[in-house]
Structures are given as structure tokens and as C-alpha cells.
Write a structure and sequence with these properties.
Keywords: Membrane, Transmembrane, Transmembrane helix. By secondary structure, this protein is an all-alpha fold. The chain contains 2 helices and no strands. The radius of gyration is 15 Å and the shape is elongated.
Length: about 60
């Protein structure tokens, strides 16, 4: 059950990240693209420590 929860959370984060990147790259409205880049930057800065901790815990548990 726990593996499914981890996979679902990772999939959701990947989907959100890909949507923000697509908007930032493809949008011709520069104001919205700048906002998307800001959101992407906040996601990466905010998620990096938690993601690193999760990867470390998965490695210690032998799942990676």
C-alpha cells in the first residue's frame, strides 16, 4: 500500500511539474510564462529538500 502512495505522489508531482514547464515554454503570453517560471522555481526550491529526504529514506529501506 505504501509503495502505491509513493508512486501516486511522485506521479502527481511529475504531472504538475510537466504542466508548469509546458506553460512556461509554449505560452506566448510573457506575463503568464514568467509566472509559470516563478512557480516552477518555487516548486523546485520547496520540493528539493523533501524529495532528497524521501529518496534517502527509500534507499535506506532498500527500495532504491
Amino acid at each position: 500500500m505504501r509503495e502505491w502512495l509513493i508512486a501516486a505522489a511522485a506521479g502527481y508531482l511529475l504531472l504538475l511539474l510537466s504542466f508548469v514547464v509546458a506553460v512556461a515554454v509554449l505560452d506566448r503570453n510573457h506575463r503568464r510564462a514568467d509566472r509559470a517560471v516563478r512557480v516552477l522555481r518555487l516548486l523546485l526550491i520547496g520540493a528539493a529538500p523533501g524529495l532528497a529526504g524521501a529518496v534517502l529514506k527509500l534507499h535506506q529501506a532498500g527500495l532504491l
